[in-house]
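hey so i finally got around to running both of the ones u sent me last week. sorry it took forever, my laptop kept dying halfway thru and i had to restart like 3 times lol. anyway pasting them below in the order u listed, first the sequence line then the structure token line for each. didnt double check formatting much so if smth looks off just lmk and ill redo it

first one:
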Amino acid sequence: MNGDKRTWEHTFAFIGAGNMASAFIFGLVDKGVCNPGDIIIHRRDASKNGIYLSKGYHICEDYVRTFSTSKFIFLAVKPAQLQAVLQQLASSGADFSDSVFVSVCAAVSCDLICRWLGCKVPVVRVMPSTPITVGLGTCAVSHNDLVPKKDFQLICRMFSAVAEVSVIPEDMQNAVISVNGSSPAYFYLFVKAMLSAAEQQGISSSAALPLILKTMEGSAEMIRRSACSIDELIRAVSSPGGTTLAALKVFYDCGFEKTVADAMKACTDRADEIAGALECS
């Protein structure tokens, strides 16, 4: 499908098929990007293999073979496991020069993947967000210089079928974890705090939660659709001397924006620490 001279048994191979990878695997087929038979999967836990087999996906216990017969190789294991996986591939003597590696492993650089593999290969890095499991995810995508333009465009189209995609420089991959990779937890925490506050005022969580969630959804859509800036949207809700300004004053007095910035920086700093430890391994 990419004009390669080499014949591939499978277009896409996945090592690791946890919740996020599974959402992507099923999403590719549901959106018509490929057929189940185009995908081969290796997972350590074989208990769910029957689900994939029943839908027409291919399963392989030997991930060296899984990878060596596939054009696009998705690395969906934990960063701590990736080194052993790639070093085993390196020791196999298989030729991966025509494959494209697609990594969703946080804090693992393209150069480090090549180093563990023992050769220079095309690598695409992706930072997804967990809401991809409900069809509302995001992916920040980067690549090294060895990825052919047509292959990168294909990867972006694939991810666009199941998520919102932004292309960023690779040196921003650790920082972007704080923007989309870890940020669902920020929103969960904010919802939890609002629920608790509502209950303290006598409003049941069963009554408050739908209101909070729909307000979050609507506010996001207002930002998406409106020609106004976010500051203008805030002012539009904030009548002089009114209730919204009273609430916002508490946020501002408590340093809400600085707290968010500090939290995001802590996230990025930790990603840099993990990356540094992996580089030294």
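and the second one:
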Amino acid sequence: GIIGYPSVGKSSLIARVSSARPKIADYPFTTLIPNLGVATIHQRSFTLCDVPGLIEGASEGKGLGDQFLRHIERCGILLHLLDISRALQGTEVDTAVLETDYRAIRAELNAYSPALAAKRELILLNKVDLIGNDTASVEQALQARSLPVFASISAATGFGTEALLSALLPLILQERIKRQEERESSGGELPVLKPQEQTRSMGAYRIERDEKKRIIVRGARIEQFTHMTNFESEGALRRFRDVLERIGLLKALERERKGFAAPVLIGNIRVDSYLAIE
């Protein structure tokens, strides 16, 4: 999955290395839906997903990001694209700008899902043709900021893109083996949720009642998600309801309430007024 700020060259990269022809233009949010492209190298192929640009606040519904963060969950490896042009000052590259861009996107991934943020991530420098493809000093400076660059490329000219695919292929094959082993270990059957063993999963929750007959939802990830939700934001509220519906919690709460207006808390936060449940 290719991630990064709007207009950093995600669509250009997927168009360069595959036969996909996404819409490309020099303004934010040109990509409105995720684009898929199949890249082939050394007689092997793999799929790339060009995810619409993220901005700060995407996990709370700003921009287009909250609609598409979930697409990244399906990706085995994240390619985090940093745009040289955003940091170019004359002929010099201000790596502090690149670090700020990187940290902002990482914050959105963490806010959306720690499991998503834990995925393998590779940092790519794009538009390096703007500095004559000479990236040694920039890569050194980013390394000093704990941002190791996996590859420096120019999606526009094709510089470095074939080498990128060659370097990616063994990592993707490793990921395929890992996923196959996970499927085989589960026996191909639906997994049984065990909250005590899956505390990082959003779906690892339990519903209980206290002595005041309040309905309380417990679960490390769902409680963290609720605590981080800004309920004054319409986009964040939509996202909150969508997540609860996706993991089956809304229906579970409807069954638990059974027509009685019992207070509903997730952790120590009361949420029944936000859920529109009977």
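quick thing i noticed on the 2nd:
Residues 5 and 142 are 18 Å apart (CA to CA).
anyway thats it, ttyl
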